Each structure stands twice: as structure tokens, then as C-alpha cells.
Amino acid sequence: MSRLLSHSIRPVAVLAIACSMSIGPIATSVDAINIARDVSSNETTKNEASKETTNRKERRSSARLPAEGTHLGMMFIPRLKMRSVIVEGVTDPMFDIGMGHWPGTAMPGERGNAVYGGHRTARPAPLYYVERLKIGDPIIILKGLKKVEYRVISKRIVKPTALWITHQSSGSMLTIFSCHPRGSTKQRYVIQALLKK
User: Fold this and answer.
1) How would you classify the pairing of strands 146-158 and 82-88?
2) Which residues contact 146 (CB under 8 A, 6 or more apart)?
3) Quick one: which of 45, 37, 42, 102 has its CA closest to 68?
4) Average pLDDT, integer, range 3-19
5) How many domains does the chain have?
6) CATH number at residue 64
7) Domain carrying residue 96
8) Which residues contact 69 (CB under 8 A, 6 or more apart)?
9) Which helix (H) or strand (E) holds 115?
């Protein structure tokens, strides 16, 4: 249960974490467990029963998620001359390795939205020149012998709280985010791309 709770707390802070910003403690695992116990002991409505069913489904699906730090492949962005390892997780230690895959989002080539974050200025800074990407540019992901290619369809600047960028889609989409402007955590630069057929 603590894994599920820590997983549900993490997305609130992850866009701020993307730029090595120290945001302070959100809640300890013990605090989260105690809060969850207090809340669940007072909940009796049908709506809450529905939420419990959803939580059970999330626990089942999270059991199949790769462990944080698992090597998932390589990402190449030719226009940026960028080549980066991809690991599971969107925490600073994962971004210090390379591009981080947002847990629970689609995997490359699958239906849904595969979401990745990376540092812009902190090493290894795979997204240092992210603003140079143009509509139509390829983004390539290699996983073993499998090659998946996406084409950029949009570029935008959003607030750090814009968690909608992780929402899943009915098609095969890729979203990349990093801090903006360079050296600041005030905004996020977001690139979205569609799977090339």
C-alpha cells in the first residue's frame, strides 16, 4: 500500500523535480499511510466504494510496472544530435542518468501517451537545445532490436503544474518535457509527437 501511496503522491511534484529543484518534503510514507487509514476508516459512500475498486485496479497494474531505474532503451533526436539512455522513473536520480519514463504511461509504440522527462541544464542535459525541434522532426526510440519512430506535431510552453501532459490518448503518442527557460524552473517546454506509421 505504501508503494501505491508514494506513487500517487509523486505526480504532484514531478514536473518541479525535473529541473533539480528542491521542493522539500511532500509527505513521508508513514504520514501518507496514516492519512490513508484515517480517510478510509471514515468513508462509507458508494462513491468511495467505486474509488476502492479503482485503487485495486491501479495496484494490479502497478505490479507490472518496471522498477525505477530499469533500463528501457535509447532515445535519439537527430536535429538535437541527442542520444540518451532511457530509464524508468521521473526523479532527479533518474534524470541524472538520462531520459526518464513517467511510470504508468504507455511504452514506446504502444497505444497511449508515452511520457518522458529530462534535464535541460543539469548533466547529462539531453534536452539542452529542445527549443530547436521543428514540426515533423523525428524522435527515435530503440528498445533492443525494436525501433519506434515518432514525428513532432506540437511544441508549447506550460506551467509546472500542467499534469494534463501525462493524460493518455487513444492513438500512439510521445510527450517530452523539460524546464523552461534554460536554467529556470518557472515553466516547462513540452514536445508532443505521433507514431510514424
Assistant:
1) unpaired
2) 108, 109
3) 102
4) 43
5) 1
6) 2.40.260.10
7) 1-197
8) 87, 88, 89, 93, 94, 97
9) strand 112-117
